[in-house]
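With this grant's support, we have paired protein sequences with backbone structure tokens. One protein thus recorded is set out beneath this paragraph:

_____
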Amino acid sequence: MATVELLFSALPEHVRTARLVAAAVARRAGVDEAVLDEVRLAVGEACTRAVGLHMSHGLHTPVRVSLIEDEKKFSIEVGDDAPHRRFSLPGGTLGASGPATAEANGGRNGGAAVGSGLVEAEGALLPGARGEIPEPVPEEDEGDGEMGLAVISGLVDDVEVTTDENGGLIRMSWPTTEPVLP
């Protein structure tokens, strides 16, 4: 199992670098070329979310990205150190309880869908930091950041989000074929 670890300061300008590194490592690991745009977008959303959480909580610790190549899958983990609270996400399960389930994806993420389409999970989400420094977000506006996780769940079939008072981790996986070596 080969692993590449990337730590970067929680600044929006570093998200692009993380996206490019993730795409390059995914290509080398054997992720299908047709899926590489989805990998880039999903990593961008996850890193943007982590940067926004760090900035809004005044954290100076780095955002963590692990790129993990297994025999038949490629995984990316994006970690933050921000404390999380409860939230609801329409159409899927994202949180400490387990992997994502998206009714909108026709159940392709597995698991059981909740009747109302809303599920409870751990994590306070904040708007992404795309070139701007987010202001501290009042508690009633924290749901605005749920969009990033909704986008990720639409892009990635195998996604899991875990959170607690010490931070969060988004784990995404894609199947691989035989790697193409240069």
The first strand starts at residue 2 and ends at 8. The first helix runs from residue 15 to 29.
